[in-house]
Amino acid sequence: MTILLSLMLAATPAPAAMPPMPQELSQVPVIEGWLGRKISPRWSEDVARQYRKGKCSGAVPFEGSNLLEIDMLFLLSGDGKPLQVAPVNAHCPEVEQFISNRILGSLRGSFPKSGSAEPQWMRSQVRFLWSDAP
Length: 134
Known about the structure:
Blueprint: H1 3-11, H2 35-39, H3 44-52, E1 60-62, E2 65-76, E3 82-87, H4 93-106, E4 120-130
Antiparallel strand pairs: 1-2, 2-3, 2-4
C-alpha cells in the first residue's frame, strides 16, 4: 500500500456502529409531529386488502370499523435519513413490507435531524381504519 493511500484510509472516518434494536419501546424517544402518523390513514384500503385475505391479525373493532395501530421503530442518522424501519406489532409480513416501502419511498425525508454523529432509534405509530360493512 502506498503512503498516500495509507494516509487517506487513516483520515476516512469509520462508520458509526449500528445500535441494536431496542427491546423496550417505552425507552425509545417518540418522533413528535411525524408526518407519517398523519398520512398513514390514507393507506388504510391497501392494508385492509391484506387483512381481507385472512392471513393477518391485530386489527380490532372500533366504532363499526377495523382499527390497526402499528408501533414503528426507526434507526435514523443524524441528518434524518432512515437507516432501518421496523414495524413492531404488524403481525403480517405483507403489511410490514407495504408500510416499510411507503415510508422509505414517500416519507423518506420526513424525519427530524438530530445532528448527532451516532445513529439513534426513535419511534412513532401508523394507524389504519377501514370498514367491511356492505
